[in-house]
Structures are given as C-alpha cells and as structure tokens.
Amino acid sequence: CETCSEEEAKYRCPRCMKYSCSLLCVKKHKLALSCNGVRDKTAFVSVNEFTDLNLLSDYRFLEDVGRTADAAARHPTVHSPTTKKNLYCLRNNARKCDIDLRTLPVGFTKRRENSTTFNCTEKKFYWHLKLIFPHCHAEYTLQGVPDDKTLADILKPYIDPVESDPVVCQR
What proportion of the chain, given as a percentage, has pLDDT over 70? Predict the structure, then answer.
C-alpha cells in the first residue's frame, strides 16, 4: 500500500494509479493528494503504454461524445435565428479566406468557450487558441490571436529560451 506501507495493496486508484489496501487508505489517499478517484478519460497515453483497455475506453468515450452531440443538435438554441446568423457569417467569411472552418455542436463546453471572431473592416480572423503541452500537463488559452501571426510568434512566450518567462518555459 502506497499510503500506509503496511498491508498488501488490493486496490488501484483509476485517476493517479496509486495502490491502496483498504477503504481507509483510499480515503486518506484522496484527502492527501486531492484526488477525486475518477479516471481522466482524455488523459494523454503514450504509444508504449497503450493497451486494449485504453482502446476500449477511447471507444466508449467516443460513443458518449456521439450521444452528447446528438442531444445537443436537438437542443432548441441550435435553431435560434441569431445563432444561425452568426455561425453563417463566420463560415461564409472563412470560406472566402479559403479556410476549412469546423464547429462543434451547440451544447459543447468548448463551443461555448470559443471566442473566435471575424473583423469585417480588417478582413481578419481573431482566433481563440488553446495551447496544450501534454507531457507537462500545461494548458494556456489565448484569445484574439490575429490570423496573420505566425506559429513561431505565438509559441515564443512559452518555449523561447531567451524571450519567454523562465517559469513558464521550465514548465
């Protein structure tokens, strides 16, 4: 047991993979590490560690996403005139700029968080970006990133050894 180091471990935490011997140790583990014990379905798994159980888990996750998307598509706000008009304008401007724009269905959290806009006077998209660095579990959200900004300029504050904040770069 990784909590008490006295008994043989019988249980394994689905979230952090720590071994426990009893319900008491499981509760202590959750309290000490602020672990909720719920497996993170979207956690990064390297190819070397990928098993049949991971494949089955991913399949079930995709089935859940499909059901959620179907339910969201039936939601009444999908059919509201303002939602359709804004989305139509965004897609139309993307098509003019030769951009293949794809959007999530209404009801998805990432769809609600998205703040991508198109400025008609400048003829420019301002993107909502989420930078995810899976190996260090770091996520950064950027809003209003102009479409003429290069990927190197976007990543410079996070990975450049000279111009980035040392704490952010180290993470």
Answer: 92
